[in-house]
Amino acid sequence: MTSEKFERGLALRKQVLGAEFVERSLANADDFSMPMQELSTEYCWGHVWTREGLTLQQRSLLNLGMISALNRPHELKLHVKAALRNGLTREQIREAMLQVAIYCGVPAGIDSTRIAREAFAEFDR
User: Structural domain of residue 11, as residue ranges?
Assistant: First the structure.
């Protein structure tokens, strides 16, 4: 049984991350990983991403900085593509990576910039 928050979260998650990616994530989930898919869809997307107060662009920009600081390359690549879908420009993403370099360290900024370039190339395919 799914909740209204799950359904709203699922719709927004597909919009931001791409329906193909989300559907593949759900299809590949097993008994072990499905609870994490459900949690992230309802809690992250249904409870927080759907809130008023910040635009999707603002949420994406925050995510780029936080995920870079946490050194989560897979999630960063995913969220760079999401940021593009949410209307951020490559220049804005570059500026976010420069900000990361100042506040999280140049190695974090360099890695994040490299990952963003990879995401751009994949997004353009």
Answer: 4-49
What are the tens digits of pLDDT across the range 87-108?
Answer: 999 999 999 999 999 999 999 9
Contact of 110 with 71, CB cutoff 8 Å: no
Q: How open is the CA angle 33-27-30, to the nearest 5 degrees?
A: 30
Alpha helices in 18-105, H assignment, sequence order: 19-28, 34-39, 56-69, 73-85, 90-104
User: Is 1 in a helix, a strand, or coil?
Assistant: coil
* Pair 66, 106 in one domain: yes
| Tokens at 88, concatenated | 């951020």
The answer on 65 and 38 residing in a single domain is no
Convert the pLDDT of each residue in 68-89 to its tens digit. Answer: 999 999 999 999 999 999 999 9
Q: Tell me the CA distances in angstroms from 83 to 4, 48, 62, 70, 71, one per residue in order.
A: 25, 16, 10, 18, 17
